[in-house]
Amino acid sequence: MHVTDDTYDPETPDKHHQRPDGVSDTTVEALGALSKALETTERARGMLYAFHQLTGGADLELDEAVRLLREAGHAEQADLVEREILGRNVIPDHWTFQIIEAYNQTYYRPFQQIEERLRNELADGREHLYEAEMKETRRTKHHPDHTAR
Cys-Cys crosslink for 120: which of 18, 35, 103, 125, Cβ 3.0 to 4.6 Å? Predict the structure, then answer.
C-alpha cells in the first residue's frame, strides 16, 4: 500500500520495519528467534485445532456406524460402540476442546504475551525486524518486484 505523502520511498522500508536506534544486531537476532519460536507454536496450535476437528468429525460419523449396525441387526455391537466410544474423553477428563483451552491458557497466551512484551521493551514493539533486514539484504534494488515496502 502506497502512502500518499512525500515521505514514501519504495526503496526504504517503512518505519515499522526499521530498527530503532540503539537496538543491537544480537537483540534483533534474539527477537527473530523468539518470533520464529512463536510462529512454530502457532503451527502446533493449528494442529491441535485440526486434531479437535478430526476427532469431533469422527465422533459424529459414529452416529452413522451405530445406525447401520442396528439396521443390519447388530444391536449388541451398536450398543457397544455407543456406550464405549461415542462421546468418550480423548484423554482422562478431557474432550479435544478442553485440551485446546488448557493449551491456550497454560502455554500459548503466556508465550504470545511475553513475545509482545519483549518486542515492546526492546524494539518499540516492531515486528519482524530480523526478516525485514533480511529482505533488505536479499532484494534487488530498484527492481519493481523487489521494493522495500
Answer: 125
